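Help! Submission page says 'invalid entity' but I think these are all valid:
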Amino acid sequence: MSKLSQKHLLGIKDITRDDIELIFETADNFKDIINRPIKKVPSLRDVTIANVFFENSTRTRLSFELAQKRLSADVINFSASNSSVKKGETLLDTVNNILAMKVDMIVMRHASVGAPHFLAKHIKANIINAGDGTHEHPTQALLDAFSIREKLGTVTGKKIAIIGDILHSRVALSNIFALQKLGAKVMVCGPPTLLPKFIGQLGIEVEFDVKKALQWCDVANVLRIQLERQQIKYFPSLREYSLYYGINKKLLDGLKKQIVIMHPGPINRGVELSSDAADSQHSIILDQVENGVAVRMAVLYLLAGAKG
Amino acid sequence: MQKKLILDSDLLDITISRLCQQLIENHDDFSETVILGMQPRGIFLAEIIHKKLEKDTKKSIPLGYLDTTFHRDDFRRRQTPIRANETRIDFIIEGKKVVLVDDVLFTGRTIRAAMDAMIAFGRPATVELLVLIDRKYNRELPVAADYVGKVVNTLPTQRVLVELEAQGHKQNKIWLINKD
């Protein structure tokens, strides 16, 4: 089989381990291609893709756009800040208007949980979720797992700690699903106020002490404190958060073992991750960014390739 | 399902020897020649020919694998995407004489895609095509092979099955299969 089980990529929850492995195998080929002098293949030359971003994004949008252009797709970009959404148009109307211009695929980021799932019920185009509220961010989880597989050879059996603001993170949930499907052991770590109440029921370890988490894991995926989503105070100050949960080189050197440091970006340097840790040889943060393009190419290629 | 044997093991050996001799006639000392096997099935034939040529000429000849998946013209026109294979060309093809090797030449579309894929690596001086089986009367594009193992008259509904020891088969055999 060389086909995904789903027509859309709404979340990692909906796809199978076979799907993830097919995406990885395809991404291996694309990673090879984007490292050649000529980085472009003509596969998606008759496909039009709209990147519809109702929320700010730099990395994800650029990564998707580059992936689409490397595949020779036609790309249109839409961001809510300068659009008719401001004039009161509904989500479905906005998207239907875009589709009326003969668009084949939609890559969407939206602040509301479930927005892409809602669209999938009402429109025919393939939908890729580029982040819905605090719910899922499937391509980020795929590129994270792909980067772990590249660095450590496999994801199966590895211990991965997700550290930081789990409560407001869509990366965390998608990562948990992806890593579990691939047979990894997962831990979340952060201040109790930033961990969702029932997160342990997903079958993962919960830890409040960052030193213990680092001691346990092979890979630490460090998440940003999402101040823009925090309507109330979850911890006294950034300085205090940094003192208790910030990861720095001294902490890593004290572990007496090699661990891999990941971060989905953007990094708040000096808060969750110090500069000497982010730029150390432990870090694969920039590999993640490179792999993001290859993994997104694979997702676009596999979704566009299935007929109907 | 009817199966008809087109080439048996002995005949195949003779055919491959002849193809190698033809290459040697045209490529002198192979100093500017590279061989590209086409994924997924052409690579086995390419390896056999490469090994024999290196043995006969006592020269080292670069061998690479070329995958055409992302350059095909039937993307989104078939039910499932084709699974991609590795492209491995760790030498320069710019200015070289490239010999593309595939097992069966049918519609010619794979060869068109291959030329497209190959150009991404540079501009070869010349490109030639070597195929084991040339299926006559089935071409959809103006493509012809320079070195042909055997020409077979086939219907579009028939299939040519190449079984090589290198692919894990007991004996080298090439079949024509009637689908009914």
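Support: the input was valid. A stray whitespace character was the problem, and the output above is from the cleaned input. The helical segments of chain B are 9-27, 42-57, 109-119.
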